[in-house]
Amino acid sequence: MDFELTDDQKRIRRVAREFAEAELGERIAPYDARHEFPREIVGKLGPLGFLGALVPEDYGGAALDYVSYALIVEELCRGDASVGITMWAHNSLCTNHIASFGSAEQKRRYLPPLATGEVLGAWGLTEPGSGSDAAALRTRAELAGDHWVLNGSKAFITNASVAGTAVVMARTGPERASKGISAFIVEQGTPGFSTGVPYRKLGLHASDTAEMIFESARVPAANLLGAQGQGFAQVVQVLEGGRIAMSAMAVGVAQAALDRAVTYMKQRTAFGRTLAEFNGLQGALADLATALEVARLLTLRAASLKDSGRPAMHAAAMAKLFASETAMKAATWAVQVHGGAGYIAEFPVERIFRDAKLTEIGEGTSEIQRMVIAREILQL
Ligand SMILES: Cc1cc2nc3c(=O)[nH]c(=O)nc-3n(C[C@H](O)[C@H](O)[C@H](O)COP(=O)(O)OP(=O)(O)OC[C@H]3O[C@@H](n4cnc5c(N)ncnc54)[C@H](O)[C@@H]3O)c2cc1C
Predict the structure, then answer these.
(1) Which of 121, 210, 230, 251 could make an SS bond with 161 (beta carbons 3.0 to 4.6 A apart)?
(2) In whole angstroms, how far apart are CA 369 and each of 70, 137, 140, 324?
(3) Tell me, what CATH number does 372's domain have?
(4) With a 6 A CB cut-off, is 117 part of the ligand 1 pocket?
(5) Which active-site residues does the annotation give?
(6) How many CB atoms lie within 10 A of CB 377?
(7) Which of 78, 105, 120 is the last residue before a domain boundary?
(8) Does pLDDT of 213 surpass 80?
């Protein structure tokens, strides 16, 4: 067992950290306040190779290993989780789905502009009536000549209104549950396809989340991803990597919360001493820093399993569960350490606290991760 990162992985982490320190953090606060997508800053991720992280070099990507990728997601989310989720939803969900299951022609057409960031990607699985029970989705696709005609809608989709390319799951067969689901590549501008006004959210205000609407949307037959009826099996694979990215996001958010708490503890005085000198606070900090390190190790272990081609679903579920709950605990404590200041929008912990909550909900809630873990243990 080797816990040492390679030189390349350390270099990639340094590049991501330097970018986050220079471009994210408080520079995103005004976008967050205005609920505005930071298009210009997201645009800078392309030239760094971060938007083609998982794309093979033949299609213009950086073809990074998952450990490197998780390190980038962590560092970006440590800087700002809105920019982080924009990047990883693009990579882990949309781009990776096409790279993993697309035909050579689909990859040639869609991956290069996604890899450079010329086009952003979104991934639509969740619907107003189905989230945790994703196989219950009701958006339908009917084949009519050389087109699929899609009807239905998707809810809470990251990047929906800023993406040029989306992967969308729809029901193509009469079979119930997961069997009759297929995946499609849908381009912005497809007749009958539109997106809603971005939601006003609790947190991640600078990330785009919107509805996707399909009203007899005409998608070319050639845009079916993989075989008909294989969409849900693909989703399971895609979510494995997505959960590792969400874990890395949670680790970054937890680290950001502790960074802020440590800075504040050293500055703020009470009863003639800095907060850093109080034993009670030191103990809580030590516990959270330990949990954070466990979360990071679980995340990198899941990423490393994926790199070695071994099943990572169980490890990804454990990492996602533990890291997201650690992020929420760390953010809650960081607000507490700031006292009244923690409740005020000018202090970054307020934003970190709001952003942290999503990690316990997206890519499968904590309850769903517990279900995945228990079923594996019980061999159900
Ligand atoms: C900001 C944001 C971004 C998102 N981005 C995307 C995206 O890009 N693409 C996409 O497809 N989706 C996306 N989602 C959707 C997200 O994945 C779902 O919201 C999530 O999976 C939960 O589904 P739901 O909202 O329908 O909740 P529900 O499934 O209705 O769950 C409600 C509650 O019931 C619990 N529950 C459900 N089933 C069980 C069970 N069997 N046992 C115990 N408890 C259970 C849940 O844990 C939860 O607490 C996003 C959501 C948000 C908020």
Answers:
(1) 210
(2) 19, 20, 28, 11
(3) 1.20.140.10
(4) no
(5) 363
(6) 9
(7) 120
(8) yes
Residue 377 φ/ψ, nearest 5 degrees: -65, -40
List Cβ neighbours of 225 (8 Å cut-off, separation of 6 or more). 97, 98, 101, 102, 106, 167, 182, 183, 184, 185, 231, 234
Cα dist from 378 to 65, 371, 372, whole Å:
31, 10, 10
Counted domains in the chain: 3
What domain range includes position 369? 232-378
In a domain, 1, yes or no: no
Residues 148 and 224: their CA atoms lie apart, in Å, by 8
For tokens 């533990």, the residue is 322
**145 and 272 in a common domain:** no
264/367 same-domain check: yes
Specify the ligand 1 atom closest to the Cα of 160.
8
**296: Cα within 13 Å, side-chain hemisphere:** 20
Distance CA 326, CA 295 (A): 7
Q: 121: Cβ below 6 Å to ligand 1?
A: no
- Given a contact cutoff of 8 angstroms between Cβ atoms, the answer to whether 225 and 101 are in contact is yes
Each residue's pLDDT tens digit, 302-314: 999 999 999 999 9
CATH of the domain at 174: 2.40.110.10
- Regarding whether 141 and 90 lie in a shared domain, the answer is no
The answer, yes or no, to whether any atom of ligand 1 lies below 6 A from the CB of 126, is yes
Please give the distance, rounded to the nearest whole angstrom, from the Cα atom of residue 49 to the centre of ligand 1.
30
Which of these three, 120, 153, 170, is where a domain ends? 120
Residue nearest (by alpha carbon) to ligand 1 atom 48: 365
- Tens of pLDDT, residue by residue over 229-256, are 999 999 999 999 999 999 999 999 999 9
152 and 62 in one domain?
Answer: no
Structure tokens at 96: 């990776």
Whether residue 253 is found in the same domain as residue 352: yes
pTM over 0.85: yes
237 lies in the same domain as 372: yes
SS3 annotation, 83-147: HHHHHHHHHHHHHHHHHHHCCHHHHHHHHHHHHHCCCCEEEECCECCECCCHHHCCCEEEEECCE
Q: Are 106 and 78 contained in the same domain?
A: yes
